[in-house]
Amino acid sequence: MYARNRPKNDGVDWLIDLMEAWVFVALIGVYLMLNWLKNRFFPEEMPAAQHTERIAHLIKTNPVFVVSKATCPFCRQTLNTLGGLGAKPSVLDVQQEQEGNLLQKAVMNMTGQRTVPQIFIGGKFIGGNSELNRVEPTKLQQMLKEAQDAKGEHEIQL
Ligand SMILES: N[C@@H](CCC(=O)N[C@@H](CS)C(=O)NCC(=O)O)C(=O)O
């Protein structure tokens, strides 16, 4: 390693190479150990079946369902857009929930989207606020009407 930058034939090339390799191995070892300690003493909380079931139930039984946070401007925009079209979304504010963090993770596991809002119309996952804004207003209105007319148990489409 780096042999071209060093005076040639100093007789300790192999020793320096060996030490460099060991430093590298030791750094990987330290990284793995710290990672293990973190997982051992601060394990990441995972959503349980009950969180996923609650979310699935809310998606299925509400014509329009939004996972939201009161402090999120995108969520406010989404609720304004939907409200402006006459929809009455059911809102799950994960900041108001005792296990909101886990509920948010449960939704995330279902949709693959990390952010809020998460919007469902007629059991179908629309996306976030940006995706909602991309739906043509007449199409959106039609989707909302169909979802409202169908009410009750929607088939979940993610
Ligand atoms: N492109 C997304 C942006 C949404 C976004 O960035 N939301 C923020 C809150 S305002 C978020 O979810 N941050 C992570 C979190 O709060 O867990 C959308 O239009 O919905």
UniProtKB/TrEMBL annotation:
InterPro entries to which the protein is assigned, alphabetical: Glutaredoxin, Glutaredoxin_subgr, Thioredoxin-like_sf
GO aspect biological process, one term: cellular response to oxidative stress
Keyword Transmembrane helix listed: yes
Occurrences of domain Glutaredoxin (ranges): 64-126
Record has Transcription as a keyword: no
PROSITE patterns in UniProt: GLUTAREDOXIN_2
Cellular-component GO terms for this entry: cytoplasm; nucleus
Classification via CDD domains: GRX_GRXh_1_2_like
Keywords: Membrane, Transmembrane, Transmembrane helix
Chain ranges passing through the membrane: 20-37
UniProt-listed Gene3D superfamilies: Glutaredoxin
One Gene Ontology MF term: glutathione disulfide oxidoreductase activity
Protein name: Glutaredoxin domain-containing protein
Source species: Trichomonascus ciferrii
Lineage, opening ranks: Eukaryota, Fungi, Dikarya, Ascomycota, Saccharomycotina
